[in-house]
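Let's sit down with a protein and look at its sequence and fold side by side. Which protein we use is up to you, so please pick one and set it down. Label the sequence line and the structure token line clearly, so we can match residues to local backbone shapes. Go ahead whenever you are ready, and we will take it from there:

***
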Amino acid sequence: LSLARSGSLLVFAVFMMVVMWALASSVLLGTWYLTTRVKGLVWPALAWMAATLFALAAFRNTAPGTPPIGCVLDWFAFLWAETLIALCLITVVITGIRTALRPDDAQPTK
């Protein structure tokens, strides 16, 4: 008796991991853009990043067989992507608040 995963299940799991990393990478690039351009609080960007943070959990729950927390999918993609997106969101908020609180006559530092 031997058990094995089907090929389509493995392809879908790898696809999910690639999508999670792609979303995390896009949030990271957005964070880099917002923090280097000294834009202040950009609410649509913050909404998009927060939506991505919570959408990944729902996307993870669509995995075939509803794997438990701690599966390979989590260790290779989900937990890292969630952490990266959360840190990016915090960075954008802190940078945006610091920019918004700066006096109008102060020159932006790069």
